[in-house]
C-alpha cells in the first residue's frame, strides 16, 4: 500500500446557494431514463439516489464503464483554456475595459507555447516527470517562452473571454447586431490582433439569446426584413428580457440575422469564442431568468458558425445550469462545445472571489452528471463546464487556501472540464503559476484529454460515515472521495484521492440537505484498492504522484531540484492499493501506468 502523511490545514469556510439536482437513480452500467422534473422532484430523486439506489447496498463492487469524450459540435476535441473576468467583475475587482483586459490576457500570451517536448504526453512513461528545473523559474529553453495555457498537443488554443458589459447598451449596429461599447472597447479588432500575436489568446465574447428591443425597425443584413417582424410577441417591445426580444424562429430572416452576427464577430472583431448565457430551460430551483426555451437560439448560432469563415475555429459555450433531461439534451450536445452544469460559483460583492462551499457544490453537480446522464452516452460530444477556476491567487484574493486551490484545479482537470481561470492574472502567486502552467499537470491533462473522471467511493480511517448505505467502489456523494480517469487505450489511468472537507453547503431547499452531509474533521486516511477502482485485478501498474496538493507539499524540492509532488512510487504488485492521509480540503493525483496484465 502506498501511503502519505501530512498535518491538517486550516482554510476559509462559507455557505453556498441552495442547489436542486436534476438526477435519476440508475444502475451504473445502464443508460439512464431522462425525463423533465420539477425542483422538488429533482431533490426527491437525488435523495433516493443518496439512499442507496445508485451504488446499491450490497458489498458487490459496481463494474466500471470507461467514458470518453468525442469531437464536439463545432469540431473541437479538447477543453477550452484561458481567462474569464466574471468573478472579478462580480466582486468589483476589475473594470472591464480594453486596457484592463489587455493587461490580464497579456499574461496568457507571455506564457504561451512550450512545444510538444515541454507538454509531452509520455513524460511519465519515460520517468521524465517534468522538464529541467530552470523551466519552472520563468526561464526559457530552445527559444520558447515560459509555459502557458495553450498551443500544446491536446489544448491547441487559449481564450480571453469578455463577459457582460462589452457591448453597447440596449441597441445594436445598423443591422441590429451586438457591437462594442466604444467607451470601454474603442478598438475590438485591434485588441484581438494584439492578443493573438505570437500565438497568444483568442478573443471571446458574451451574448444573450434574442435581439435588442430598440432595433425594431432595423433591417436584417442582406434582406428587406425588419427585426420587429421576426419577434415572437409582435413588434411592440413588450415581453423583453435584458433589453432583448425573443425570436419567432419560424420567421424568415431569423437565421440570416444569426449568420450576420457570427460573421461580424468572426471577420470584423476577430472573435473565436461565444459564451451564450441565460440559455433556458434550466434546472435551477430559482427557475429561468431568460426566455423560457432557448434551444433554437443555440441551434441558430451553431448553424451560423458552421456557415461562417470561422467554421472549425469558433467555440460556443452554453450557460448556465442547463436542464439536461431527454427533451433538451440532444440540442445541447448537437449545437455546443460545452455546457454549464451549475450556477455561478463566484461570490458577489465580496472581498474574495469564491467560497469553497460552492466549489463542493460544483463537484457534486458534476458527479450527478457523470453518474447519471453520461452513462451509456459514449462518446460524449459536449464538455462539462463547472464554471471558472479560481486558483491563480492567494487566499486574500481567491478566498481559497492552498489545499483548496489545488483540489479545485485537480478536479477541473480530471473532469475534462473547461479551464477558464477567473482570477487576477496580474497577481498570480507561485502556487497559482504551478497550478495553471505546470508541465506535468499539462502532460497528464493531454494524455487523458479524452476521458472524464468518475467517482469510486473509498474507505477511510478513521471512518467518515455517510448518511446512506455505503459500498466500496460505489458512486455516492462523499466527503472522502476517489475519482478515476480512464483507463485509456493503453490501460493507464489517473486516480484522484480527495478530502473535500466538512460540508459547507447550506441545509436549505426542498430536501433540506447539503452536498454530502458529513462534517468529518481532522486528518483521515483515504484508501482504495485496484479492484474497487474497477481496474483489472491481475494488472500491475507503475504508480507516480502527479500532484500532491496537501498543505505545503508543492513547495518542497528534492535534492536533484525536482518538485516533491512529482515522484515515482513503484509498482502495485506488492501493494495493490492507494492510500493517503488527507486533512480537510486536501487531495493527491496519481498516474497509474500499466506495466503488465
Q: Would you mind describing this structure in some detail?
A:
- The chain is of the alpha/beta class.
- Helices cover 24% and strands 15% of the residues.
- It has 15 helices and 19 strands.
- The chain has helices at residues 39-53, 86-90, 98-110, 115-118, 123-126, 188-196, 254-268, 295-306, 329-335, 356-373, 395-398, 402-415, 430-437, 439-447, 530-533; strands at 81-83, 158-161, 202-207, 211-212, 244-245, 271-276, 315-318, 338-340, 383-385, 419-421, 453-455, 459-461, 480-485, 493-499, 524-529, 540-548, 567-571, 577-582, 587-596.
- It has an 8-stranded parallel beta sheet. It has a 6-stranded antiparallel beta sheet with strand order 11-13-14-19-16-17.
- Strand 13 (480-485) and strand 14 form a beta hairpin.
- The two termini are 19 Å apart.
- The model is unreliable at 1-58, 113-156, 507-512 and 556-564 (pLDDT under 50).
Tell me briefly what this model is.
The chain has 597 residues and is α/β, with parallel strands linked by helices. It is built from 15 helices and 19 strands.
> Could you estimate the helical fraction of the residues in percent?
10-25%
Described by the principal axes of the CA atoms, the overall outline is globular
Helical region count? Answer: 15
Q: What characterizes the major β-sheet?
A: 8 strands, parallel
pLDDT averaged residue by residue: 80
